[in-house]
């Protein structure tokens, strides 16, 4: 599969199996030549790239290019210390929904 990628996708050839899969899906939905020209190329700025490591050296130990294994990043969003105190205590007085009455409709014949 990957050995023929440069012949099947000469414009911004995918370099990973994941990118190849996404490219196949993209071209099923958008087979036009003009759509192919919108496919970006170049290095990613995912959590494992050199550019990302410039931001945070801790990311150099994680080589998953998709960022799915960004250690602790996704789960930390659910820790209670990140939530406002009113939400944690269940005392938020903000309305969650606004009730709106349906307009009256009269059908005359």
UniProtKB/TrEMBL annotation:
Protein name: Asparagine synthetase domain-containing protein
Entry's Gene Ontology molecular function annotations: asparagine synthase (glutamine-hydrolyzing) activity; ATP binding
Gene Ontology biological-process annotations: asparagine biosynthetic process
Keyword terms, alphabetized: ATP-binding, Nucleotide-binding
GO CC terms of this entry: cytosol
Ranges in a coiled coil: none
